[in-house]
Amino acid sequence: IGFQIGDEPEDEAALDVMLQSTTTIRGVDPDALLIVNFADRDNTDSLLTKAAAHADVDVLSVDRYAYKDEQYAILESVRSHALAAGKPYWRYTDTYTQNGDPSPSEEDMRWDAMVGLVYGFTGLTWFIYQIDPSPDLAPELFTENGSFGATKTSRYPIAAAINQEVRNLGRTLTQLT
Q1: How far is CA 86 from CA 44, 55, 80, 83, 176, in A?
Q2: Which of 47, 56, 65, 148 lies closest to 103, judged by CA?
Q3: How confident is the model over 26-84, as pLDDT tens digits?
Q4: Cα–Cα distance between 88 and 157 in angstroms, integer?
Q5: Left if phi > 0, otherwise alpha if psi is -120 to 50, otherwise beta: which for 86?
Q6: 3-state secondary structure of 162
Q7: Residue 156 burial (10 A CB sphere; 0-12, 13-18, 19+)
Q8: Packing angle between helix 72-85 and helix 106-118, nearest 10 degrees?
Q9: Are 126 and 93 spatial neighbours (Cβ–Cβ below 8 Å)?
Q10: DSSP label of 103
């Protein structure tokens, strides 16, 4: 079982709470997969350095939803910190709308997944499927938040097809340097 511990720490104090939580969970479940996710902020490099050095953090993760080169720097930063610490690195991909914004296109969904592959990311999470419903966020893959029984939308098969593409390409990309 994996646990994402908190989300997007804004500063070192918030990260310290998250890191203490990883230690607490590790004490209860030694085999748990513990993930810490970051946003693209001015202080993310220093936060990544601290999280990467923490023994109870298994995976460094990032979310940066953009379809231009503006996300390359944060992808490279997460990659560098994770590789230096010998840890896997994952990323969130955009499959939600916020406050009525337009849905990401199929092309955007594919690009979002593939840019992670180019940077060597070994895991991706299609955001959003959360149990605590948010009034500002609407899921793209399911008809509602807060229910494991929610009906899949017409966008779910798109994500499933991209997952298969990522799986097939990912095996090849691991052989490249």
Answers
A1: 18, 11, 10, 5, 18
A2: 65
A3: 999 999 999 999 999 999 999 999 999 999 999 999 998 877 788 899 999 999 999 99
A4: 27
A5: left
A6: helix
A7: middle
A8: 40
A9: yes
A10: P
